[in-house]
Amino acid sequence: MRFAASAAAALLFAGTVASLQTSAQTLDDLKNDGKNPDNILTYGMGYHQQRYSALNQVNKGTVKRLVPVWNLSLDNNWGEQAQPIVYNGVMYVTNARATVAIDVATGKQIWKQTLDWPPETPRVVCCGVSNKGAAIYNGKVFRTTLDAHVVAYDAKTGKEIWKSKAAEWKEGFSLTVAPLVANGVLITGISGAEFGVRGFIDGWDPETGKQLWRHYTIPARGEKGNDTWPQNNNAWETGGGSAWITGSYDPELDLMYWGIGNPAPWASQSRPGDNLYTSSVLAMRPKTGEVVWYYQFTPNDAYDYDACWELILAELKVGGKPRKVAMQLNRNGFLYVLDRTNGELISAKAYGKVNWASHVDMKTGRPVETDIAKSIRDAKATEHWPSTRGAKNWEHAAFSPQTGLLYANTLHEGRMYKHLETKQFKVGERYMFIENLPLPRAAGDPVGHMEAIDPLTAEKKWRVPLTDFQNWSAMLATGGGLIFTGKETGEFIALDADTGKQLWQFQTGSGINAMPVTFTQGGRQYVTVLSGIGGLYWNIAREQLKDKVPQGGSVWTFALMQD
Amino acid sequence: MQHFAVALACALVSTLVCNEAAAQTPEQMKTGAEIYERNCSPCHGARMLDPQGASDLRKFPNDQRERFINSVTRGKNQMPPWGDLLKPEQIAALWAYVVNAEGIYGH
CA of B42 to nearest chain A CA: how many angstroms apart? Predict the structure, then answer.
């Protein structure tokens, strides 16, 4: 009898666990993301943001049989940049206008929640009316809005559970970042450095939307680091320092790594000093927002060398010893490898053409600026490499633990750059004061590359030049020896991770500037990417692309053709 | 005063037969240039030289003032409305700047 009772209790317990697992995502689920290939629960396909999956059903041999299994229109012309989240057979996708839940097996829309923001809002969005994706936790789907709110929906029904205002969009703030859930706290950054905001990172209670903490990326008077701003003007109050790409997270160290954006205005004459913590990485505690260490990539950034990009976490052998590292292909042209336990600089090698600095001093951790930098700081029109758009922009790299290499879509672009006289700050208006004109380009000069890069030497294992259009899509690396990425001309492609040779492509009908993912459902491997031209590159290259590439967002999902 | 007289004459006759560029004051052009540099150049390019994805304002027909004012005020295609931020006289100053670009920069 006692046995029966305990058996019944065990069954009840098992049932409870099972029902919890179907309705909720626990912190352990998030921590273990990547281990259960049916789900994709975090930005970057794991807190480490490696954008790597060990799945190998689709591999170099089988990829030729990769075919679309469904497509769903997102009815959106603003552009698709998001990374899908997948949980228990449901995919969650966002763009600036809507959040959509999709049945992975059939591609049918389960629910859709649209957003309305004032038509003036895009005025405070420098670089594309978009959204990078959702977060999922404890039965809720979280996202940010263009007009600077954070929203929680019921994952099953799409019903809005709470909506909190992070900031006033009319003051130049906007939100496109995918939220991070770490140690039970929902965390979001902010955009707006081009409008002279003072950036911040917020911690929210995922259950209620109550703000738990706010950490300004620029310290106030009296706080540590404010002495790196002028003391005779209020430049720190309008100093920028956005945080518009989701931080990575190391649950063992309980540290999250947020890249911090450029200072404002771009022209630097009104803000002498290092301008902490702009163009830096902050290692922070998710529970409190406390900063444990920082590293500044570009002190007194005069070039829009925003450091928001992904900080990819991995274990690398350095001098024969395994080190816990954070890696970033920084916009300033250097590939940084930091010890993520303490911020110590391990390596910083140029991975593209750089003329503003000769190298990074390994003792001080600071870039050594050249005469080019002096010329720019002296407000002379100067040929500048990499341009303000960087040697790489936001399009995320992948890291394969299988090969030990980073895979990235990089930019190869210099521009004629000039600081203008800075003028008075005006709330909600541009705060940049620069000219940035194109350089003549010889026919056949690459505009960017797809490349495989050694993290510690920045040497290229392979490099595929792009001579027509740059790629502004993230990379996905797989255990099948493949790299997936997309082109602005619409092709979704698979490359051989060992050689860069293109093995497969599919035309998706609009440009790709999003983040491919792969997962399984019923033992079958799927690959998904959003198509829909938009974002900064659409702003840049619309004249050349508009007659070739129509707008229009949709979700494409692929699998191997079955017999 | 001279500009005012030209503008008045234009208004009296027909804007179409007048040189629109002559109907602007240097003050307007200066104000327009400042607003342009801060708010418009990020998309339409420094000094209108590098429009990239936005419309090339050097090619905007200088007899379509009303269309310009409407587009800026209410927004057009990818461009958001500016009517709540810029006053009508500021948008008129922008027009003065755009329509005189050829005289200012030689393009």
Answer: 8
Distinct helix (H) and strand (E) counts, chain B:
6, 0
Beta bridge partners of A51: none
Report the share of chain A in percent with pLDDT over 70.
Answer: 96
Mutate to test the interface with B, among A542, A545, A546, A547 (most CBs of B within 10 A): A542
pLDDT at A239 over 70: yes
Distance between CA atoms of residues A122 and A262, nearest Å: 20
Q: Residue A492: helix, strand or coil by DSSP? A: strand
pLDDT at A19 over 50: no
> Mean pLDDT by 10-residue block, N- to C-terminus, for chain B (107 residues)?
40 44 79 94 92 89 95 94 96 94 69
Contact list, B54 vs chain A (CB under 8 Å) = 539, 542
- What integer pLDDT is reported at residue A15 of this predicted model? 38
Question: What is the residue type of A384?
Answer: H
For residue A320, pLDDT over 50 is answered with yes
Residue A47: CB partners within 8 Å, gap ≥ 6?
A: A30, A31, A33, A182, A248, A249, A250, A251, A313
pLDDT at A140: 98
Nearest Cα to A316, choosing from A340, A296, A295? Answer: A340
The number of helices, as runs of H, and strands, as runs of E, in chain A is: 4, 38
Rounded-to-integer distance, Cα A510 and Cα B38, Å: 32
Contact A356, A370 (CB under 8 A): yes
Which stretches of A394-478 are assigned E, i.e. beta strand?
A: 398-400, 405-411, 415-419, 434-438, 448-453, 460-466, 476-478
Q: Is-contact A550 A77, C-beta < 8 A?
A: no
d(CA A298, CA A280): 7
Of A124, A131, A216, the residue nearest A170 (C-alpha): A124
Element (H, E) at A373: helix A371-377
Taking CA–CA distances from A129, the nearest residue in chain B reads B78
Alpha-carbon gap, residue A351 to A392, rounded angstroms: 9
DSSP-derived secondary structure letter, A5 = H
Give the whole-angstrom CA distance, residue B85 versus residue A192.
Answer: 17
Reported as a single tens digit per residue, the pLDDT across A438-465 is: 999 888 899 999 999 999 999 999 999 9
In angstroms, the separation between the Cα of residue A233 and the nearest Cα of chain B is 21
The chain-wide mean pLDDT, for chain A, equals 95
* Number of Cβ within a 10 Å radius of residue A23: 12
In 3D space, the residue among A158, A227, A222, A172 whose CA is nearest the CA of residue A200 turns out to be A172
Contact B50 A436 (CB under 8 A): yes
Maximum CA pair distance of chain B?
39
- Nearest CA-CA partner of B18 in B26, B28, B7: B7
DSSP letters, A281-338, are EEEE-TTT--EEEEEESSTT--S-----S--EEEEEEETTEEEEEEEEE-TTSEEEEE
* Residue A467 near residue A400, CB atoms below 8 Å: no
Site of tokens 């939307």 = A209
**Parallel, antiparallel, or unpaired: how do β-strands A109-114 and A135-137 relate?**
unpaired
Active site residue A304: yes
Question: Could you tell me if A446 lies within 8 Å of chain B, comparing CB atoms?
Answer: no
Q: What secondary structure letter does DSSP report for A440?
A: P
- The whole-angstrom separation of Cα A121 and Cα A170 is 8
Q: Are strands A321-329 and A312-318 parallel, antiparallel or unpaired?
A: antiparallel
